[in-house]
Specification:
The protein is mainly beta. Strand 8 and strand 9 form a beta hairpin. The protein is globular, with a radius of gyration of 14 Å. The mean pLDDT is 89.
Length: 130
């Protein structure tokens, strides 16, 4: 759909649709509605803005420190970005910790993590300008 592989992320028993987006420079972004469902609820701080073709929105970061699964693959969450979006987004910094196998002919894909500890998905601090 929309040219992006889609799956789900499951956190604390709740599932959210997730786009696998190598064109996004981020690690992992969750819908702000997901923050309300987490316990303890992360304290969100605004860290910037992003723009799509049709809108601008704020980006927040909060400490989640929880286990989750993406496409059934276990991951650990640290500081996570949040935005007012209807889906989660796994960007290029998050994808760098995985191998992705894409079978174009059969319209399938597979996410593979290295053996050992589950990958840690945590927001990278943005350099200050000026």
């Amino acid at each position: 759909k929309n040219g992006l592989p889609e799956t789900e992320i499951e956190i604390a028993g709740k599932r959210y649709p997730l786009h696998v987006d190598s064109g996004s420079p981020g690690t992992l972004m969750l819908p702000t509605s997901a923050a309300d469902a987490l316990s303890p609820k992360p304290e969100l701080r605004e860290v910037g803005k992003a723009r799509t073709v049709d809108k601008e929105f704020s980006i927040y970061v909060g400490a989640v420190n929880s286990n989750a699964t993406i496409a059934g693959v276990p991951v650990r969450l640290g500081d996570v970005a949040f935005a007012d979006l209807p889906f989660a987004n796994l960007g290029s910094q998050g994808l760098a910790q995985f191998t992705i196998v894409i079978d174009v002919a059969n319209d399938q894909w597979l996410l593979i993590a290295s053996a050992g500890e589950p990958p840690l998905l945590t927001a990278r601090p943005r350099p200050k300008v000026g």
